[in-house]
Amino acid sequence: MKRSHNFTCIQCPLSCQIELIEEEGKILEVKGNLCKLGEKYAIAEFTNPVRILTTTAYIQSGILPMLPIRSEKPIPKNLMMKCMKELAKIRVTAPIKCGDIVCENILNTGINIIASRDLPRRK
């Protein structure tokens, strides 16, 4: 049975409304994109959607109680909630610099979670 999946492309300012038609996981057609970026985006979103994870972590001895953190690379979308649960357990100690690794190789993905800002120690 053929199924239709709709995506709004975010690769350029045009925000094309793309329709991907598949049957039993095989892509039959991609339409609605005004450039090749849209086609690639829709196929990637259908086959392996990924996102940059952004959240916060508790920080001890910092001038703020929370540290903004993010993944260095996009993480598979189906692992986002597992990553969030894992990150809720970590505690970081100030001082910390933007780009410092706060969680290495999260869930064995090969992706590090890094600090998104400098955070000095509380005096």
Structural account:
The chain is an alpha+beta fold and 123 residues long. The protein has 2 domains: 2-47, no CATH class; 54-115, CPE0013-like (CPE0013-like fold). It is 16% helix and 37% strand. The chain has helices spanning 36-47, 80-87, and strands spanning 2-8, 17-23, 26-31, 50-51, 54-60, 66-71, 75-76, 91-93, 101-103, 113-115. The strands form 3 sheets. A 5-stranded mixed sheet has the order 8-5-6-10-9, with no helix packed on it. Strand 5 and strand 6 form a beta hairpin. The N and C termini lie far apart (65 Å). The model has no long low-confidence stretch (mean pLDDT 96).
Number of strands: 10
Query: How many domain modules?
Result: 2
Characterize the biggest β-sheet: 5 strands, mixed
Overall pLDDT, averaged? 96
Rg from Cα: 19 Å
CATH architecture of the largest domain: Roll
Total number of helices: 2
Spans of at least 5 consecutive residues whose pLDDT stays below 50 are none
Strand order of the largest sheet: 8-5-6-10-9
Q: What is the CATH class of the largest domain?
A: Alpha Beta
Determine the CATH topology of the largest domain.
CPE0013-like fold
Instruction: Give me the strand/helix succession.
Output: EEEHEEEEHEEE
**Structural class of the secondary elements?**
alpha+beta
In terms of DSSP E residues, the strand content is 35-45%
**Ends distance:** 65 Å
- Molecular shape: elongated
- The amount of helix comes to 10-25%
Which homologous superfamily in CATH is the superfamily of the largest domain? CPE0013-like
